[in-house]
Amino acid sequence: MPAFRKEKDMKLSKAIKKNLKNWQLYLFLLIPLAYIVVFCYIPMLGAQIAFRDYSVKDGIWGSKWVGLKNIMKFLDSPIFDSLMVNTLSLSLYTLAVSTPLAIIFALILNSLPSARFRKTAQTIVNIPHFISIVVLVGMMMQVFHSRIGLYGITTSFFTGKYPADLFASPSAFRHMYVWSGVWQHFGWNSIIYTAALSGVSLDLHEAAQIDGASRFQRILHVDLPAIRPTITITLILSMGNVMTVGFEKAFLMQNGLNSSASEIISTYVYKIGLNSAIPNFSYSTAIGLFNSVISLILVTLVNRIARRLSETSLW
């Protein structure tokens, strides 16, 4: 027994000495670790505002504890159903469109014979990702303006009449929101699939070619199975963002005429928590906490489903 402990202690001391040789690398880890602690974990103490009748005068710890009152208030709110429908419809619509397009684009890029053309095409489609949301919405207003925009001028040229204002239409809002996001991000979203495809063995393609498989058949039976784990992981992670639709674009595109479709949870939280004559911090925090809990449940549920249907999951 003592000999075993002595051997174990020697291995531990060797491991410590080996790690101490790279102490500079571990020192660099302090920066992201401090960032996570300061901006992610410490603010979680403020989540208890959701369970208190918070007032600035009494502070977080001095405010009255009300339990689940604020969360129940949100669940009983007449706007709850429309907020959930708008949020989920935008998120699932975006997910259903953007993910297949990113995968298809990655498969097309991977099948191009010219490496120079492939890099050029990838660079061009990645450029919109770096456009600011404010600039993007401004571009949309210029293009889809019913009178002075490209949409209005073209329609009036062929029909002799100005078209309806798309920004005033609740039904058009969803399509404009989703497809503008697809145009902006599908190239960037395809990078992870392109990287996964680069790891596919060329021997598999050569064997499939010898067996007489066409390019399309090789995509179906070689490329897609190879990136299936990547697709599964990205879908699981995407489910964590289903309830957190981008606030900036929805808020900038929102107006009084399309609010029935553009009012989502994040814009509602902003209005009652910050953009109100009497800010209700407890209520807005409760809604945000409810949002986070639903996201966690969705990620856990989808991860369990993925684990049962395949061998790929987050945990």
User: How many domain units?
Assistant: 2
Radius of gyration: 26 Å
Counting H and I runs of at least 4 residues, what is the number of helices?
A: 17
The run of helices and strands is HHHEHEHHHHHHHHHHHHH
CATH topology of the largest domain: MetI-like fold
- Number-wise, the strands total 2
- How much helix, percentage-wise, in residues? over 70%
Mean pLDDT: 87
CATH architecture annotation of the largest domain: Orthogonal Bundle
Give the distance, in angstroms, between the N- and C-terminal Cα atoms: 36 Å
Largest sheet: 2 strands, antiparallel
Quickly give the structural class.
Answer: mainly alpha
The general outline is flat
CATH superfamily of the largest domain: MetI-like
Estimate what percentage of residues fall within beta strands. Answer: under 5%
Poorly predicted runs are none
Concise structural overview:
The protein is mainly alpha-helical.
List the keywords.
mainly alpha; MetI-like fold; 2 domains; 17 helices; 2 strands; 1% strand
Textual characterization of the structure:
The protein is 71% helix and 1% strand. The chain starts with a helix and ends in a 6-residue tail after the last helix. Helix 5 packs across helix 17 and helix 13 packs antiparallel against helix 17 (281-309). It has two domains: 18-65, no CATH class; 69-309, MetI-like fold. The protein is mainly α and 315 residues long. The protein has helices spanning 2-21, 23-28, 30-41, 59-62, 69-75, 80-111, 115-126, 133-143, 150-159, 170-189, 191-198, 202-210, 215-239, 247-253, 259-262, 265-273, 281-309; strands at residues 52-53, 64-65. A two-stranded antiparallel sheet has the order 1-2. The protein contains 17 helices and two strands.
